[in-house]
Specification:
The structure is a homodimer of 244-residue chains. Chain A has 244 residues and is of the alpha+beta class. The first copy, chain A, is built from nine helices and eleven strands. Chain A starts with 5 loop residues before the first helix and ends in an 8-residue tail after the last helix. The structure holds a DNA duplex (30 and 30 nucleotides).
DNA sequence: CGTGACATTGAACAAAGTCAAAAGTGGTGG
DNA sequence: CCACCACTTTTGACTTTGTTCAATGTCACG
């Protein structure tokens, strides 16, 4: 199991949360691992949710599809992301989670997560933190798509993905691999894929990004952040308390 | 205290959650009430979050403002809404909560909420449920602004607000009062207020809505839901479990 | 009345979408 | 190694949708 969990551990370490009791708590969970291929469905719309998940490797998306072909990607799940851990309200999903690449996911039963939270286990902080980050990312997604121009949106999303991957050591300082098609990016940004392609082209011609195969390179990250008006504060949500 | 809590109770009752032990748990919390006037700030950006809130009466918005005048309303908080209860991760807010009308909210300390959740108190289900609903609303906001036309967006938001108000008995079957300016709606939908005004006009001319002062009336709710492709499922997230 | 905030309208403009075709990419089997 | 396939990306021409700017209305309130 530990094999695939590198991203998860790396992430918690970064946030300064991987302590001995925690590793123990983690080990004590019956983590069930699953594998998916690109385009495979992880959670379908209407399915009851009973578990939380950890992305071990690969990318996934949560998307909602309107009947008529229109589709919106709500967010991307990257290696190390915890998701749906906080959903104990029962009920059915209103969305679909899909593997975008080869994907390995570990699932945790709701019961186990609840127990962890009840115990005030060492993991519970990490879980709360992660839930808060997920919400912050959703909010930023709303702002990005609601009030930014197409160019800003693209630059902003690229920087977010890069920052998140960097956190789990899946990206270089000035580059990262984006193993998904432009259609998915367009669906996340609320743009047509045609327009997205043009924006990519523009960004490349103006040397704000470079592309080599599926690798995105930032020749001048600061300049790009300027264009995107990107500030990564929402991703890291500093811990200012020690309530527990 | 109970005076202003009508909306909250009504909401919990609707969801079938207001039980005797719960009312007791509620009473045991030191709910601190606060009053705000329109435009007053409830939570400022950068402030550390230490409390959760319940809206007793009035409307509030959570918004994020880009430096240059652009502003995005992330969501609206209506009477009976619980919010930020799930944020135990510490950290600072990346957004601002503002009163849109006269507003009364009750605040609950993080410690008390945590204790409730730990005890598996009768309230904890309601809290989880509420958190899940908040997230579902955020997702729907993303889809609305990302993949719907201006007309669909407006109709969809009106229907959402109506459904939410209906749940706490703050709306009539076919109408509700919208005590806020079009600027706020526009900022929520990612539209200019000029265009929003045109869309409102269109909807009214085509008899999809009527307006009397600040009251919005739906002469034919089904037809409007059709236009908006609105399905309220995401708001009610049925309880299919009984894990606790 | 007059004032200020909010809402509406028109005209010119800009941004993004649609449609259709061409060019690139990668994988497969001969 | 090459030819072929399916798929994704890019490009061009044109349309639609939404924005901007500026003027005009409206309404509540002092």
């Amino acid at each position: 199991m530990t094999m695939q969990m590198g991203g998860f551990f790396a992430r918690l370490e970064r946030v300064g949360l991987l302590t001995a009791p925690m590793a123990q708590a983690l080990g004590s969970l019956a983590l069930q691992q699953r594998r998916y291929e690109p385009r495979e469905t992880v959670i379908s719309r209407g399915e009851p949710v009973d578990e939380g998940f950890v992305v071990c490797s690969g990318w996934a998306s949560r998307s909602i599809s309107l009947g008529d072909g229109r589709q919106q990607v709500v967010n991307f799940m990257l290696p190390g992301d915890l998701f749906d851990l906080q959903i104990f309200a029962g009920g059915e999903t209103d969305h679909t989670v899909t593997a975008l690449t080869d994907l390995v996911i570990a699932s945790v039963s709701r019961r186990d997560v609840l127990a962890l939270l009840r115990d005030g286990s060492a993991l519970s902080d990490g879980i709360w933190r992660s839930a808060a980050q997920e919400i912050a990312i959703l909010r930023e997604q709303i702002v990005r798509n609601g009030r930014r121009s197409a160019t800003e949106r693209v630059a902003h999303l690229l920087l977010e993905l890069h920052a998140r991957l960097l956190l789990v050591e899946e990206a270089g300082q000035d580059r990262f691999e984006m193993p998904i098609g432009q259609k998915h990016i367009a669906d996340a940004l609320g743009l047509s894929y045609v327009h997205l392609s043009r924006v990519f082209g523009q960004l490349e011609r103006s040397r704000m990004i470079l592309r080599e195969r599926s690798v995105i390179i930032f020749p001048d990250p600061a300049a790009l952040a300027e264009v995107a008006k990107f500030s990564p504060a929402y991703l890291f949500l500093q811990d200012t308390t020690s309530t527990r």
